[in-house]
Amino acid sequence: MDIGLIARLLPHFLQAAGLTILISTLALALGLAVAAGIAAARLSPSRVLRGFGAAYVSLIRGTPCLIQLFLIYFGGPQVGITPGPFAAGVIGLGLNIAAYMAEAIRGAILAVDRGQSEAARSLGFSRGQAMRRVILPQAARLMIRPLGVNAIALVKGSSLVATISVVELTYTAQRLIGSTYRPFEVFGIAALLYLVIIHTLRRGIDRLDRAYAPG
Amino acid sequence: MGTRSRAAACLGAASIGRKNALVLILTASMLGGCSGSYSWGWYVVLPTTAQGLSNIQFLLSGLWQTVAISLCAVAISAPLGLLVALPGLARNRWIRSINRIYVEIIRSIPILALMLWVHYGLPILLGINFSAFTSGLITLIVSDSAFTAEIFRAGIQSIDKGQHEAAEALGLNYRDKMRDVIVPQAIRRILPALGNQFVYIVKMSSILSIVGVFELTKKANELTTTIYRPLEIYTFLCLEYLVLVLIISAGVRRLERWLTIDRRA
Fold first, then answer.
1. pLDDT in tens, B212-234
2. Which CATH topology does A3-211 take?
3. Chain A: closest CA distance from residue B184 (Å)
4. How far apart are the first and last CA of chain A?
């Protein structure tokens, strides 16, 4: 183990870790927004919307994330949309995780006891009001953990954008191994940084989950 | 496992047919309908022309590698996962921590980074070169074993304590108790989860294209560099995976239904 080498590489890696965090955060924001829409579609009374939601989830979950990224990054220019690697990464990861998160949201909403919505309706709440005021606040705390698991998967999935040349952790590790030829140190640092990011995220989720735990 | 779960399984089977059909119809209409200003080049994967047919044959020629590597990976990682899960159930803290450390570390490393390490790093450390297939397989096995271990652990923990006590009362030792009583029951319960994990492996095997395993994705990449039609080719690739995944999930569902029928009755 070469400590000097690690010290020299660390600044590169910290910068790359920053990009990993940035791209994951942006993708998470996009993913949550899309997921909310898809979950709403899947729970809507309209058959068409329900079908659309189900198809979206099946299509995204049935195909590899890597290929979805390729489709956006390499296929986009063909239809006149030329996203940069970073934008393609955010869009691809966001749209991918949205399908999984939509299922988490839907699951949490369905897990709220039926009686709650019946009670709200019998008190004169409209469907929308019952959802907003009664169901969602209860579902929100059930969502924390499943959404958290997806957020962790997203951070790891963000390594895929290395293939479309976004200079994040995995790309940096791959490049530096070519120039230093020291796999142990290089991948060691990368793995450690992933561990730190994911461990922090997991602790945050645990804390949030405990704070809002029912009862 | 009563009539309720059986009914649920039947319901699931009935609805999946309609849902799958809907997905495929939607995809088809998406492909045909969205013309816009862009002139599609579906001829590259049109089976009616000689060129299109040979392109399709080229793309499908990666299927064998995808299927082979996924099956090999799951065949090895499932028993490995069980082996990793067992220390996680021990009473001793130190033995348990072996399981925790393995699972937490492997689960925190992205599979792509792990694969690059195995393919480019490990040969430097060990002085032996792996073929792309071997390092891909190692990666999938290692990564999947951590997830499978968690599935097994949850499954074994879900088995009623009375089963352990009964087996011990009958004088079975640890190995016999696990092999004949606990694990068979646990496997029944975790089969859906293991099936999902297999779907995950099939999708993850697309990453192996990066180190040069000639599976479905690599073939599509190759074809894209010769004919610049990434949109059509990758869409076709998505369909390939979609069909593969739908077949697997239908298979898992069938297996699940078969297992929920109580054969002692």
1. 999 999 999 999 988 888 888 99
2. MetI-like fold (1.10.3720)
3. 28
4. 50
